[in-house]
Design brief:
With 340 residues, the protein is an alpha/beta fold. It is 43% helix and 11% strand. It has 14 helices and eleven strands. The protein has a seven-stranded mixed β-sheet with strand order 5-2-1-6-7-11-10. Strands 3-4 form a two-stranded antiparallel ribbon. It has a two-stranded parallel sheet with strand order 8-9. Strand 3 and strand 4 form a beta hairpin. The longest helix has 19 residues. It is globular, with a radius of gyration of 22 Å. It starts with 24 loop residues before the first strand and ends in a 6-residue tail after the last helix.
Length: 340
């Protein structure tokens, strides 16, 4: 059975505050065979939720090349509102990702090339960056995409500056996000920009997600960024590091835990995980500190101790090196507001 995407959200209309909106923004979501369904529905739920809260803020539309139904990568059939030829002048043009972007329909690319430059805001989710790049709309821009396709995007489009780490990136009027659920984070950030923090927070609460994860949050944790070691002693060490970021995580101590010489341990760890022990420890500690800063009210010195930093200054240097922001600035910008 075909399902029409874009049905009204269950977000209740009642409840202050409301914002008077002078200009309605049309959000046009392109759909195609092989599109990732959550890349479509995730951002649409965010924009639809904002429209329910603030009537007149958004008009959400879907369109395929010829106006016909498309089949998503999960088998869901999506019936679009219109054909691309029958759409004009969207404020936000959103291209989702999915299998269908790996070799995108040339008609979609040509339409994007002709109409993309006119859109005040260009957005991609996951591998939706690929057809935008094919259309020449990302040249000279800093962008991101799903981590598994960052190398391909950079290789195929050398004029595009691909950043593989963040979950979303803003560069002028172009906004690109990483895989799947990162599209929700980006959409919430856009709603916050358009309508304010309170509306975005209300939508986020309804969807049971954070107001938004910071755009420069890593796409994956240190544990996912590296391979799992083949040998059990090394796997055990990886687990120990993640569970004891405040412990002695020097090479000699970790080698002793694996019953290997420090030199043998360091070589084996890098060979089996693709990352040196020191770099892995650095990532785990930064991640642990970020979670504490986002989820607790612990002081900076307490967070530093719990995350294995000898001093707050050592943690500050690690944050500046990795995130480009001090721990205090990170908390101020990215810790979700408390629920009233």
């Amino acid at each position: 059975m075909a399902e029409k995407v874009g049905n009204p959200s269950l977000l209740p209309r009642a409840g202050p505050p409301r914002i008077e909106v002078m200009t309605q923004r049309t959000v046009l979501v392109t759909v195609f065979d092989g599109v990732q369904s959550l890349d479509v529905t995730g951002p649409m739920e965010v924009f639809t939720g904002a429209e329910r809260h603030t009537p007149g803020s958004y008009r959400i539309r879907t369109a395929s090349v010829d106006g016909g139904p498309v089949r998503t990568s999960s088998g869901l059939t999506v019936v679009p509102d219109a054909s691309l030829a029958d759409t004009a002048g969207p404020h936000t043009l959103l291209v989702p990702g999915g299998e269908g972007t790996r070799d995108p329909d040339p008609r979609l690319v040509e339409w994007l090339r002709a109409h993309g430059p006119r859109a005040p805001r260009l957005v991609s989710v996951c591998t939706g960056a690929i057809p935008l790049a094919r259309a020449g709309l990302l040249d000279g821009r800093r962008v991101t995409t799903h981590w598994a396709y960052c190398d391909k995007l950079a290789r195929d489009h050398p004029a595009v500056r691909v950043d593989p780490d963040p979950i979303f990136v803003r560069d002028g009027h172009v906004a690109t996000s990483a895989g799947v659920t990162a599209g929700i984070d980006l959409a919430l950030a856009l709603v916050e920009e358009d309508l304010g923090r309170q509306v975005a927070l209300t939508v986020a609460r309804h969807l049971v997600v954070f107001l938004r994860r910071p755009g420069n949050q890593a796409q994956f944790s240190a544990q996912l960024a590296v391979q799992t070691a083949r040998r059990e002693p090394l796997r055990d060490v990886q687990q120990w590091i993640s569970e004891h970021p405040d412990g002695d995580l020097g090479v000699e101590a970790l080698a002793a835990r694996a019953a290997l010489s420090p030199r043998h341990f360091a070589r084996a760890f890098q060979a089996e995980t693709g990352m040196t022990p020191g770099r892995y420890v650095d990532r785990v500690r930064v991640e642990h500190a970020r979670r504490l800063l986002e989820d607790t009210t612990d002081g900076i010195e307490q967070v530093a101790r719990a995350s294995g930093y000898g001093t707050p200054e050592a943690m500050r240097r690690a944050f500046l090196r990795t995130l480009g922001a001090s721990p205090a600035e990170y908390r101020r910008r990215f810790r979700p507001a408390p629920v009233a």
